Amino acid sequence: MWLVTGIELRRRRPTVKGWIFYGLVLAVILGLGILVAVSSSDEKTSGPLEMVLVLVLGAGMLIAPSLAATSINGDSAEGVLAPLQMTRLTAGDLAIGKLLASWFIAFAVLVTTTPLLVYAFSRSGWHWDELAIVLGAILLVVLTSTAIGLAWSSLAARAVASVSLAHLTTGFLLLGTLLAFVFVQPLVSETVTDVNRYVDYGAMTPEQQRAYEDAQMTGDFSELDVASLPCMEYSSQYGVAHTDRIAWMILANPVVMIGEVSPIINAETYEKDGRAAPGVFAIMHATVSGWRMGPSEEDLAGRTYDECANLAAMAAGEEPPMMDEGDWEAEQEAMSVYAPAPWVGLGLQIALLLGSVWIVISRLRVPYKKLRQGTRVA
Amino acid sequence: MTVMSSAVSTAAVSASGVARAFGSVQAVTNATLEVQPGNVTALIGPNGCGKTTLMLMLAGLLRQDAGEIRVAGADPRHDSAAVRASIGWMPDQLGSWDNLTCLQTLTLMGRGYRISKDEARARGAALLETVHLGEFADRPARVLSRGQKQRLSLARALMNDPQVLLLDEPANGLDPRSRIELRTLVRDLAAQGRAVLVSSHVLAELDEMVDDAIFMSKGRTLGDEAAAHVADAKTRYRVATLDDSLLRAALADSRVPYDDEPTGIVIRVGSDQEAAQALAWLMSKGVPVHRFGPAGSALEQTYMAMEEERR
Question: Does this entry carry the keyword Repressor (chain B) (predicted)?
Fold first, then answer.
């Protein structure tokens, strides 16, 4: 297995041009890092760290599957796969070796960003173990994308097809889960009716209109004969989605999964906790948590606003009841500290990883029963 | 060797009634052959007759739909690892790791066969000398010409010291000198007791290299009929004279059968002794012979005859 990895890495050993390109990428990354360091204030911030992590994830998910997606059908077309299959190397050796070789290249991206990562981490308010967990999750996602690329490579005859299919699969996991989550919402929506009552200005007599306007101007409603004012009722209907029932769709998204394993940052007490303000991951976690909680009782009951009743209360010298907006801050805090749910995403990633590796191994096993359509053995 | 397989045959490679289809295309319909240890056997047939497919099945890379295959006593369907370990396979498709040097290529292949690194390296270096690529040991494979890649591929097939060699078009792209060297090398390998199955289109080349020939056409191996053809073709001697009528008369008088072909008169002689006697006899009859020798490659004649029947 390590032999195959060694062969693959040696074959891809960069040329001089490759090293120059790598140097340029490194320079851009370091430049970006310095720019961020100079431009940001002295406060704790998780922004740069999250940027680096997203960079590692994005680069890994682009590079590793592209390499893996050409490494079986490409080798076969070049005639270098069958000679290896003739040796004592097993299908498993070849599959895992090729998988790791492509994955290590994504790992190299991570190593490249280390200086920036260390700096960004020092300002992020994250703990070491939290960073390690998030990096682990990112590397798992990259490994799974690589395995998917490899699986397509073992299924499709042409390298072009397998590369596109690998990226489409990645794209589906990233965007498809979001779109599915959005488009399925109407199916789990409940119709909520808001009933509002207003004073019907148009139906008032001129005297009433004058008295009404005076009262609005002065704020003194005691002179107003509220009972005689014409009142009209508006009701509006809209759907409220039970996002709690379909939150698993969004939890299947690999980026959401990474957000779910990132540290919990309390939206209210972060300063006291020695944390930076909630960054992209924390906000993502809070948003997803909001969806997981689903609509509250009040959300489903609909909101009512009764101007006529309010006027009557004010005419009687009472304070009109406040619109019940709920405790926004408490809600934010509850969402930010809601228990994370990475298991759906992690489970999906591991299932895809194992499934892909199984496909690759069974497709590499010789003697072949079936060949990829339109290919020869070598 | 297991008791069972030795009961079946002493051949290093044997196949009987082997068939394989790709979708609706029947690549090999019915192939039967045997390759004995120490022998070089040629596999001859037109393009697309199923030679490569048959070789892939023998190599344990492709599963046959029907028929039995034994390589070094093992069945590739059940013990394909043992089959592959005993085989050196030189594919018809040239593939090499372009960024790796020739020696690295061989060393890594050797390690794929679970040979220790130092041993694989030493063996690789020796094989590069054998195929005359010693000077390219530390140069990347991408600088090799077609013929040189072909030789690297042969060296690669020998890395595991195989008992059975399957060479698919090994002479392709080789210059005349390399062809002669290949011939010598293949004979040497057979002399070491290895069984060699070689497919080629260069039939004249094979004539001097092989002990046995198997002809294939449309996915079938042509057995006895082709063998009889080859045996007959080997006895055919062409006689060129300054006056063919004298020769015809002499042969007719003595009731010697002959073929009157557009390219000349062909007689049959059983052995070198017979040939010498025949020539002396012709001279004694006063026939002005100016050329006397085998009527070209026996394999080529058989091949052409088989092609003729096909049409």
Answer: no
Pairing type for strands B40-44 and B220-222 reads unpaired
- If one looks up domain B3-222 in CATH, what number appears? 3.40.50.300
Given this model, what pLDDT does residue A326 score?
A: 64
Domain span at A199: 185-336
Q: Is B265 helix (H, G, I), strand (E, B) or coil?
A: strand
Residue whose entry in the numeric block shows the structure tokens 């006056």: B243
Q: Which of B25, B51, B61 to mutate to test the interface with A (most CBs of A within 10 A)?
A: B61
Residue A125: inside a domain: yes
Task: Say if residue A167 is in the same domain as residue A24.
Answer: yes
| This model's pTM is above 0.90 | no
Query: Residue A286: which of A270, A300, A266, A258 has the closest Cα?
Result: A266
Residue A350 has which token pair?
Answer: 């591991």
Give the pair of three-digit tokens for residue A46: 């998780």
Residues A7-40 pLDDT 10s = 888 777 767 787 888 888 788 877 877 887 777 7
Q: Which residue of B has its CA nearest to A74?
A: B95
Residue A177 lies in a domain: no
Task: Report chain B residues whose CB lies below 8 A from the CB of A82.
Answer: 61, 89, 91, 95
- Phi first, then psi: what are they for A366, rounded to 5°? -110, 155
Residue A148 and residue A83 in contact, taking contact as beta carbons nearer than 8 Å: no
Chain B CB contacts of A10 under 8 Å are 97, 99-100, 104, 108
CB atoms B60 and A366 under 8 Å: yes
Let me know if residue A372 belongs to a domain. no
Q: Chain B within 8 Å of A87 (Cβ-Cβ)?
A: yes
pLDDT in tens, B45-85: 888 888 899 999 999 999 999 999 999 889 988 888 889 88
Residue A173's contacts (CB-CB under 8 Å, 6 or more residues apart) are: A252, A253, A254
Q: Do A10 and B99 touch (CB under 8 A)?
A: yes
For residue A148, pLDDT over 50 is answered with: yes
The reply to whether A179 falls in a domain is: no
How many structural domains does chain A have?
2
In this structure, the answer to whether residues A239 and A347 fall within a common structural domain is no
B108:A6 CB<8 A: yes
Same domain? A20 vs A92? yes
